[in-house]
User: What shape does this take?
Amino acid sequence: MRSLIDILDLSTEEIDELIDVADDIMAQPEKYQDACRHKILATLFFEPSTRTRLSFESAMLSLGGSVLGFSEAASSSASKGESVADTVSVVSGYVDVIAMRHPKEGAPLVASMHSLVPIINAGDGGHYHPTQTLTDLLTIRHEKGRFDGLTIGLCGDLKFGRTVHSLIEAMSRYPGVKFVLISPEELKLPSFVKKEFIKDKNIPYEQSTSLEAVIGKLDILYMTRVQKERFFNEEEYLRLKDSYILTKEKMKLAREDMIVMHPLPRVNEISTSLDDDPRACYFRQAHYGRYIRMALIMKLLNIRV
Ligand code: NCD
Assistant: This one.
């Protein structure tokens, strides 16, 4: 039985396969409409979500399956003090696959050790978010046509931004990739990611506190929200929250073929005046999430059509 806890649980070949299946689903969705008939997905979300939870549910419903779950810890027995291990030992007897989001790093890994069915990490604290990365990879393949040789700027909260950590892990496997890390001093990439996936692999990178200074060299600009819920100190959040705001002015410095990605939700970091710029692909990116999650659910349930 396979779970997906970390994006590196999938080989690059498996990621290519998932992208091919997602493309086929987009081309002929009716072929897949009964693929997961009589299968049940549980979404156990101990932390808020819009896109991730609803795209998982939409994915399972689009495959002809059913969904159940909860969308906040307060409406589960976690509020009575039940452990993740116990919750999963029980729920995994009710369903065929579980997508779990939790504020504690490592909770989905613990869950996978107690589960009778595959666990999908739908975001664990400031750690990882592998299904957002699958969504990001599908977006990059569609918008740029390749993974090799891309210069990727990651901007904003690189410390707590779990989507950034998983994307760096995944992209570090493709040849010729370069990273440009754009953040305030206080929100720099954690050393557990930088050392293992950039330095130890001799991947070229640079760090900048200025977006304007580096935007002109990027193929992809991946913007992120400052992760308010992971700050201990409200004042520090207020000081850092608007560190980077992407505007039309700044986009004039970018290449004509640079794409702007964002896992969403956006707070302030991208001006809404950019939404109709063809280089802004964050809403298309959110839509891709449904199809790659359909492909992933089928893979973990060993279903082929
Ligand atoms: C991200 C997350 O939850 O980490 N959202 C998402 O899943 N698309 C990014 C964020 O919350 O800023």
Remarks:
- The mean pLDDT is 97.
- The chain has two domains: 7-128+289-300, 131-285.
